[in-house]
Design brief:
By secondary structure, this protein is mainly α. It has one domain. It contains one helix and no strands. The chain has one helix at 13-34. It is elongated, with a radius of gyration of 16 Å. It starts with 12 loop residues before the first helix and ends in a 12-residue tail after the last helix.
């Protein structure tokens, strides 16, 4: 997709990166409450 003013998000890359890192970190810590680290995988369903 060609980027122009209509297709580029107003949120900066830095802002998106911070959001993703925070979301992944929170999700990982939530998983650790229920499972041992060796039982967690990226491809796990549900």
């Amino acid at each position: 997709m060609k980027q122009n003013k209509k297709t580029v998000s107003p949120v900066s890359n830095k802002g998106r990166n911070i959001y993703v890192i925070v979301y992944i970190t929170k999700s990982f810590l939530t998983l650790l409450e229920d499972k041992a680290i060796e039982n967690i995988s990226i491809s796990e369903d549900g």
